[in-house]
Write a structure and sequence with these properties.
The chain is an alpha/beta fold. The chain has twelve helices and 14 strands.
């Protein structure tokens, strides 16, 4: 099992397996295939992968909305399968779908969520007001949510997830559809939650920049398994050298050019359509040789780019293709 963190975890899942019936009586689909993950208080762990990798299925199991076929999970030391009601009192969930009532005001939504979680009327009113102010929603709090922008509504979903002061917060693709400013505001608040309130956050995302910015550790998920895990900077440092991307005229040209790059000493060469991706110890120095060799081979490059290692390169190394292709 890949170990994400050391110390007492706020969340721990071990070898989760989940299958679903196949279409037209076909074989069962294996959504999770032994996935394991841990999150300690005050940290963010990002499950990074394309749609269909198993991220949302993991969240559903850990938030008691689904049961695994095999494996175990604990949240705040409570067995998710044995005591689901107790787990629900210790977690907050921001799912992909909106959780607020558009025909109620923001304040009514927040206070109702607090009351459902057992807060008294006075405590619910105070907590709702505190969070609405913190998320810069106070000025719109008494308007119907249907009049709010998408970014404001998404922040209200987070308010609802936090209103009862959970130990663990699950964020399932929390910034999908938000504009850059709203995303940045969301990121800032998530950072404050972990740093100041020691909330443990499990984030699922297919945004590379989001995982890089927010996560203390990233777990790359492929076909229902965690294939590599670690701090983003550490994972990128393990990819020695530079990423070299070569665009050619066609997939056939890329296939032919692959051997050329290999003879030049480039490594980890992967063809994706008309694009070749490889690694070089010194990308800038390799570019002239790449261009000349491809011209001589009759497969001239349309463009060559060099960059420092990214999380997409990490994904490519461990999965065999980029996130863009997987999506």
């Amino acid at each position: 099992m890949p170990t994400i963190t050391s110390g007492p975890p706020a969340l721990r899942a071990v070898d989760l397996v989940k299958t679903y019936p196949g279409r037209r009586r076909g074989p069962r689909v294996r959504a999770l295939d032994g996935l394991s993950v841990e999150v300690v208080p005050g940290s963010v762990v990002a499950l990074l992968g394309p749609n269909g990798a198993g991220k949302s299925t993991t969240v559903k199991i850990l938030t008691t909305l689904s049961r695994p076929d095999a494996g175990s999970a604990e949240v705040a030391g409570i067995d998710v399968l044995a005591h689901p009601d107790a787990v629900r009192r210790r977690i907050g969930l921001v799912s992909q779908k909106p959780s607020s009532d558009p025909m109620a005001t923001g304040r009514e939504n927040a206070e109702l969520a607090a009351r459902i979680q057992g807060l008294t009327r006075a405590a619910a009113r105070a907590r709702a007001g505190e969070l609405l102010d913190r998320f810069a929603l106070a000025d719109a709090a008494d308007r119907l949510v249907k009049t709010w922008s998408g970014g404001m509504s998404r922040k209200l979903d987070v308010v609802i997830g936090l209103v009862h002061r959970p130990d663990v917060l699950f964020l399932d693709e929390p910034t999908t559809g938000l504009d850059p400013e709203a995303r940045a505001e969301m990121w800032a608040e998530i950072g404050r939650l972990t740093a100041q309130e020691q909330v443990a956050v499990l984030l699922t995302t297919h945004y590379l920049d989001e995982a890089d910015r927010l996560a203390d550790r990233v777990a790359v998920v492929d076909r229902g398994r965690v294939v590599v895990v670690g701090p983003p900077d550490q994972l990128k440092r393990e990819l020695h050298g530079d990423a070299v991307s070569v665009e050619l005229d066609s997939a056939a040209a890329a296939t032919a050019a692959r051997a050329v790059l290999g003879r030049l000493g480039l490594r980890e060469i992967v063809a994706e359509g008309a694009t070749l991706r490889a690694r070089a110890d010194d990308g800038a120095r390799a570019v002239p040789a790449v261009l000349a060799a491809l011209d001589e081979a009759g497969t001239p490059a349309a463009s060559v780019t060099v960059s420092r290692p990214s999380l997409d390169d990490v994904y490519l190394r461990h999965v065999g293709h980029t996130m863009e292709v997987a999506a």
